[in-house]
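Reading a protein record of the kind used here takes only a little practice. An example makes this concrete, so a full record is given next.
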Amino acid sequence: MNADGVVLTNAMLVYLAECPGRTATLRELGAHFGVPWQKALDLLWSASLVELGDLVDAYSLTLPVRPGQEEPGEEPAKADSAVSFGAWGSADVPDLPLTLDEVIAIVALVDSVAQITPPGPSADALSAMRAKLVAACEEAGFAGVIWPEPAAAADPETMGRIDAALACGAWIDFSYHRPGPGLRESVTAVRAIPVDVRSAVNPVLLAWSADGARTYRLDRIGAVRLGPGARRDELAAARSAVRRDSAWQPGGVTVTLTVTRAGRWIAEMLPGATAVQRDGLTEVTLRSESDEFLATLLLQLGPAVLDVRPAEVARRLAGRFAALAEDADA
């Protein structure tokens, strides 16, 4: 289940728990959350089968059988079938004690997801969750500790159209704004296939255009227009290119950086890194799990890095930096 599915399922459970009699029909759930009743049933079945360790008996769901899985004599599920949320014994889901540090970490995670979530039930559920965490902090005497809710990375219309293009596999046209020469605004017209949206300090859209895989800051995207549907081969090429450009490699690859004295600090900062002194220089060997991580590290090192091995990794990074330079000059 993806992040949207988890958020939506949680919202459904909260909704059921607050319904009169803790019961609603699949039709009501579907209408409230804007999904087909079949999907609502599927998500609730997934929730009922999740093992929560010591909390496994904390709640129960009374659900109709999934379509196609009925035994002889069982009534098939339909839109008017009722679903119920119940608690085992006399207790509801037990309170989970959290430290202030843990609450701060959860709020930060909620904010990072909310910034890239289009308007809808998932965004509303995240906002409600955040409000409850803030209220709990205030009740515990920590009023003012949690920062104000940040603004979304892009306006609702922009996020909605990007999300629609991601859902149906379509091209989008948009204007991309960035600083130009003399601090004047530079605006570029872009046509691309969106592949993914990533949370970061500045959330980004990963997309593919005629120029290959590209990364666009969401707060610099404007005037998004939904274009034609992408062909199957175009979608495959887009996903493959973005995956190569930002792939997280299980276990990583071994990379050796030759650095000057000014770059020796990375050997102490990175867990598992080893360093060897050669002719006044330092060779630092480390595991890199993505080119994005390595590119960020090289930017921090600047002129202190003199060589990158293996050559294949060096070529990929050179291509990445060349593309960034072209974007900056455009």
